[in-house]
Amino acid sequence: MGARGATAFLARGAERLTFMAVWNVTGQPGASVPAGFDDDGLPVGVQLIGRHGDDALLLALSAQLEQARPWADRRPPVAA
């Protein structure tokens, strides 16, 4: 990836980082959970944020989502 490509990639990521810092500062629990696959077979995830100190509820929800959308036996296609 060239400098322009890398710069563009980092700029797109920075747009989203603005929202993530709030959760780090407040200490609220968060989880990134696989949520299925798109039409091309690529994995899609969801970020879940829980109430402060309520890690157990967030973990229970994450487990339910993973059980409803199993992913462990699937792999995205790899192009050579």
3D structure, described in words:
By secondary structure, the protein is an alpha+beta fold. It is built from two helices and two strands; from the N terminus they run αββα. A hairpin with a 5-residue loop joins β1 and β2 (43-49).
User: Would you tell me the overall average pLDDT?
Assistant: 81
Say how many strands there are: 2
List SSEs in N-to-C order: HEEH
Task: Note the overall shape.
Answer: flat
The biggest beta sheet is recorded as: 2 strands, antiparallel
Radius of gyration: 16 Å
* Through-space gap between termini: 17 Å
- Low-confidence parts, pLDDT < 50 over ≥5 residues? none
The structure class reads: alpha+beta
Strand content of the residues, in percent?
Answer: 15-25%
Order of the strands making up the biggest sheet = 1-2
Q: Helix share of residues? A: 40-55%
Number of helices: 2
